[in-house]
Design brief:
By secondary structure, this protein is an alpha/beta fold. The protein has 13 helices and 16 strands. The relative contact order is 0.12.
Length: 426
């Protein structure tokens, strides 16, 4: 990818060029029409830069495959990429994509702060927007109560729910005191609250001996580690997920925080998995890879192809933002093509929206679907870390898989009330 602040990516590979003039799945060629333009808003720098970059790579992989197969309903896909930064500037880029670049759909966004502000604007603009991520409970009911044009990712709390269930499953009766170090905004606070709510639901009595809330972007975590060490908790829960996570792990290891018997539950650690090296990342911690675990046994041909291509091209291994981006593109493709077939003509935005509701697709991490209330359902992966692998970083030795209908609230239900009443299985 050419790294400019704004770039237009035309992903017409050799295979795609060869198929360009041929009809695809019964769709006529649209050679006379412009390509379908999809706007992408993702972080490319800063503490979330590596996450946005992985998402962009997942998008490119999807578009290359789509264009090689003839496009979406016979039209090639062209990407217009803008950077996600703060809410104000990111919203201005959304307006630019829709009003000036005339994109047909916008996808992306990692931060809850950006998504909560952007969702309401997209509804006002009547712009089709599919979020990769960033849909934390706090604020969603106010900013996106009944979205029509906006489609959301799975609830951000899904990973916290799964990590909590695994901590209870593996360690019930083995911890009485807990501590948390979580980012000081809605995502971190909701995750730690969800963990405590689930402990209560399963009748596990604990004492919170420390709560650390570093501001997002804090890279000196020495005082936070010292406070955790002094508290001597039996279990530490952390939803750190940006560039601060590897720094925390190194600092904690250096301070001897991991030398005792403390247990660790890190539901979002997979965002930084290749940076969590064996020398400072313990075995036996609950570790969330969420909707994409790159080293899963018996992967689908799609995942196997993606991981192999990713490793060969980038000398790295993908995290779950690649899956979220791929999923968003596949949901859009499925919606457009279903609407086209139903209408036998190019569909309107409302036609596409209607067709996307309830659509099922195969994503990189497994099957998924877009619920009728515009919330995604996907497959989640977490487990216990091991050093017994061919890599220089920790992977999962024990892998657990759950579908998100076990991890997130049903349509129309309050998240916190759902935790109290849901028939959740360990």
């Amino acid at each position: 990818m050419k790294r400019t602040r704004r770039s237009v990516l035309k992903t017409l590979g050799t295979a795609g060029a060869a198929l360009a003039a041929q009809p695809y799945l019964g769709f006529p060629a649209f050679a006379q029409n412009r390509p379908l333009r999809v706007g992408i808003i993702a972080p490319k720098a800063g503490i979330a830069g590596t996450i946005g970059e992985c998402g962009l790579r997942g998008t490119q992989f999807a578009v290359e495959r789509i264009n090689a197969g003839g496009g979406i309903a016979g039209r090639k896909v062209e990407l217009v990429v803008e950077e996600e930064t703060n809410p104000k500037d990111s919203i201005e880029r959304l307006r630019k994509l829709v009003l000036q670049d005339k994109v047909d759909c916008v996808q992306g966004v990692v931060s809850s702060g950006v998504s909560l502000a952007m969702g309401a604007v997209a509804e006002e603009m009547k712009a089709l927007l599919i979020f990769w991520d960033g849909t934390t409970q706090d604020g969603v009911k106010e900013t996106m109560p009944n979205p029509h044009y906006v489609f959301r990712s799975t609830d951000n709390e899904c990973e916290a729910v799964m990590a909590s269930l695994l901590a209870i499953k593996y360690w019930k009766g083995k911890f009485a005191t807990i501590a948390g170090i979580n980012p000081d905004y809605s995502y971190g606070r909701n995750n730690f609250a969800a963990f405590q709510a689930l402990l209560k639901k399963f009748g596990i009595e604990v004492k919170v001996v420390a709560e650390q809330w570093p501001k997002v972007g804090t890279l000196d975590l020495t005082s936070h580690v010292a406070a955790l060490k002094a508290a001597k908790p039996d279990l530490i829960f952390s939803s750190l997920l940006f560039a601060d996570l590897p720094i925390f792990m190194k600092t904690a290891h250096g301070a001897g925080l991991m030398d005792g018997n403390a247990k660790f539950a890190f539901p979002a650690a997979g965002f930084q998995h290749t940076l969590l090296k064996k020398e400072f990342t313990p075995e036996g911690m609950v570790f969330g890879h969420n909707t994409l675990y790159f080293d899963v046994a018996n992967p689908t041909p799609l995942q196997k192809s993606f991981v192999q291509e990713y490793e060969a091209k980038y000398k790295d291994y993908p995290n779950w933002e690649a899956d979220r981006a791929y999923f968003a593109m596949e949901v859009y493709k499925a919606g457009v093509e279903a609407a086209y077939k139903a209408k036998n003509a190019w569909p309107s935005i409302d036609d596409v929206i209607g067709a996307m509701e309830g659509v099922k697709v195969q994503s990189l991490g497994g099957p998924g679907q877009m619920r009728k209330d515009h919330i995604a359902e996907q497959t989640f992966y977490q487990g216990l870390t091991t050093h017994k692998n061919r890599f220089d970083f920790a992977t999962l030795g024990q892998v657990e898989k759950m579908y998100s209908d076990q991890l997130q609230k049903p349509a129309g239900v309050d998240f916190w009330k759902w935790i109290e009443t849901a028939q959740i299985k360990l």
